[in-house]
Design a protein that fits this description.
Number of domains of chain B: 2
CATH topology of the largest domain in chain B: Immunoglobulin-like
Largest sheet of chain A: none
Oligomer: heterodimer
Shape of chain A: globular
Strand content of chain A: under 5%
CATH class of the largest domain in chain A: Mainly Alpha
Helix content of chain B: 25-40%
Helix content of chain A: over 70%
Shape of chain B: elongated
CATH architecture of the largest domain in chain A: Orthogonal Bundle
Number of helices of chain B: 4
Distance between the termini of chain A: 46 Å
Radius of gyration of chain A: 16 Å
Order of helices and strands of chain B: HHHHEEEEEEEEE
Order of helices and strands of chain A: HHHHHHHH
Number of helices of chain A: 8
Distance between the termini of chain B: 71 Å
CATH class of the largest domain in chain B: Mainly Beta
């Protein structure tokens, strides 16, 4: 597959994934650029979706390590609580993002691949290094957690 | 155990045996049925909330095609790290290749490593492929002469295929993002 074709086939799904992983458009855009750039540099003759997601995931972790303060822990949990009192005025489109922010990093990563990119357990296992059985359990628990939060709101 | 079936059902991940168990459970157990329906409802809610995000434009500098090489483990990291740095600091300055007709300058790299079995150099000018240095008799020095176009290059030495060191003779260094330092060489026209 040529790089151009690979890019046009994967870009929207991959960006959505990054967007929900980072909960931040700018960071997601940076990682988006960087990931394709690396693929382009090294694997442009044989680009591979699993690898792209792996690179994106690692870049996300690197970024997160570098600027911890921006992420989920404080921001999202508190903002979610605030809106609890006033749900109707909350921005509709951010609800899922905020819900996903409730999950721990690894679970959010895995669940994002499922809900946003609709990947098979096998593909997710390949990207994350977990076993398929494990993925099954993690996704199930993520659903349960989210559902519980959702019902509380 | 059985409750995983609901998730698997939503994800189309049931095998035949599980399908049978799932249908039986839905049929026989009121609670399981309720749980399944509410899970599917919730899944629809979530799917509806996936917002349309606009994918940004990709901006990749038209670099010269770089061939990949096989020995990936360690070098993938170094290469990747270097690429981030290149990308972050000098998106366009890493293309000395585009300036044709510039004359080549012979540059001699020398490092003192008497204890080393093998010394290599890896840098932008080698497309980050390690290039062996020659041992200068028994002096402990290793050297290589490389023809370079004028420009700025990042590079490092690799000792015994393992240890990464920056050029001790160069004061210009930059972090590679993995705890090592790369040296920077400026070749003037």
């Amino acid at each position: 597959m040529t790089f151009d074709k690979f890019y046009s086939e994967t870009k929207d799904g991959f960006f959505k994934y990054l967007y929900y992983l980072c909960s931040d458009y700018e960071t997601a855009s940076d990682i988006f650029q960087e990931s394709y750039f690396r693929i382009y540099q090294k694997y442009q003759d044989n680009p591979n979706k699993g690898l792209l997601y792996k690179i994106g995931r690692n870049a996300f972790l690197d970024t997160k390590r570098k600027k911890k303060e921006i992420y989920v822990e404080q921001d999202f949990l508190s903002s979610f609580k605030d809106e609890h009192n006033n749900v109707s005025s909350a921005k509709e489109e951010d609800v899922l993002e905020k819900m996903l922010a409730k999950l721990d990093d690894e679970t959010r990563h895995i669940f994002t691949l499922k809900i946003i990119n609709d990947m098979k357990y096998r593909e997710i296992a390949e990207i994350t290094g977990h076993s398929e059985a494990n993925i099954k359990v993690i996704i199930h628990r993520a659903r349960k957690t989210l559902k519980k939060h959702f019902q509380e709101v | 155990m059985k409750e995983f079936l609901i998730s698997q059902f939503i994800d189309n991940e049931l095998d035949l045996r599980e399908k049978k168990l799932f249908v039986e459970s839905v049929h026989n157990e009121e609670e399981f049925y309720e749980e399944t329906i509410s899970s599917i409802d919730f899944e629809m809610v979530m799917k509806n909330r996936i917002s349309e995000v606009q994918t940004p434009q990709l901006n990749i500098p038209k670099a010269k095609k770089i061939s990949s090489y096989k020995n990936l483990t360690r070098f993938t990291q170094l290469l990747a790290a270097s690429i981030i740095i290149i990308f972050a600091f000098s998106m366009f300055s890493n293309q000395p290749d585009t300036q044709k007709a510039e004359k080549l300058v012979n540059y001699r790299f020398v490092i003192y490593k008497p204890e080393a079995e093998k010394v290599e150099i890896s840098g932008e000018f080698t497309n980050w492929k390690p290039l062996k240095l020659k041992k200068v008799s028994r002096s402990g020095y290793w050297e290589a002469e490389i023809k370079l176009k004028p420009g700025e290059y990042k590079y490092f030495y690799l000792i015994n295929e393992k240890k990464v060191v920056a050029d001790p003779t160069s004061i210009y260094k930059v972090e590679d993002g993995f705890g090592n330092k790369n040296s920077i060489l400026k070749v003037n026209a």
